[in-house]
Each structure stands twice: as structure tokens, then as C-alpha cells.
Task: structure prediction
Amino acid sequence: MIEVVRNAIPQEMCEFISHNMDLHFNLIDYPKDNTLLCSNAVGDYAPIFLESLLVYLQPLIEKTVAKKLYPTFSFGRIYHNGSNLKRHVDIEGRSEYGVSCCIQKDVDWSLYFEKSGKSIPYNLNVGDIIAYKGMEYYHWRESYHGNEHRQVFLNYVDVDGEYANWKYDKRECLGQVKHTNILNLSKTIAGLIQ
Ligand SMILES: [Fe+2]
Result:
């Protein structure tokens, strides 16, 4: 299941999220993305304004994947010139249904999925999202030639599925940041890069 939804997030909301990313990353001193998936990027786990996007988009994602879902966690990333995204599959469980959201871009920069042995590029514009079963398809990006690209990742699990115990990423509630979540995320992803 790989599904693009065009204009899923209104343009003004993308601008609002982008301002929040500026303020948030400035406050936390632009942490290097620690998921081991990319270089020349900053990233952060579950800032409150992205946790709210998880909730805001949940009805649309449920409609898109035709499942009742629990949100697990959000992640925000700003890619800089020369960055890429290593070919990988997502972590088992917490990322059963992944959603990648284009928040700000300067050049086209395709996200590739490997499907039935073929590499298929998906090009998102600001406000577009792509929902996918990231555990089932390898996905990646080639080298980035623009200056700055902002992307947000939302993750959900099937309420009635085998990963339902990952609700809220096993936190007490959305918005809660536990250092162990971040460490586990980077370790587990590192094991799945190919
Ligand atoms: Fe992924």
C-alpha cells in the first residue's frame, strides 16, 4: 500500500508548521538527525506541533488506508544540500503505517519506493502526503541538490492489528519525549539499512 494524497495539508498550515520548525529547532540548537538515515540534516522526535498534526490528519489517514488507527509518533526533519535518505525499511511495529508530508521545498526531490523489483519515484509538492506500509517496501532519496527541504513523518498502527501495543509509541500520551524512544529509534533503524 503506497498512496499519495495531494493537498492533504492546506498551504497556510504548511507555512505555520514551517515557522514552528524554525522556532523549535532554534530552541533545541539544531540537533543533527540521529536516525542514521541521512547526512546534512537536522531532526527531532515528537515536537508538540507535529504530535498535533498526527491527530489532525488521523481521520484522513484512516480513510486512505481503510483502517482504524492509533497514532504512534511524529518526527520532523530539515534536509540540507548534499543530504540523501538511505535505502531502508521502517521499524517493525511503531511505523506500521508511515506518512511522509512535504512541508517546504525548493526543488523537486523524489522519494523512491521499491515495488515488485522496480524503483518508483514519487514527487510531492508542499501540502502533499504519501502514506505507505514502510515495513514492506524499501524507500530512499538520492542526493539533494537544493538548499533546504522540510519533511514531516507521521506514524500509526492498526487498532485491530498485531502492532496495536505501539499506541503512542508506548508513551503515556502524545507529546511526551523519552530519551529511550529516541535511542531505540536510531538503533533499530540502523539495523535495517541496506
Ligand atoms: Fe522510512
In short: The chain has three helices and ten strands. The pocket of fe (ii) ion is lined by residues 88, 90, 98, 134, 139 (CB under 6 Å).
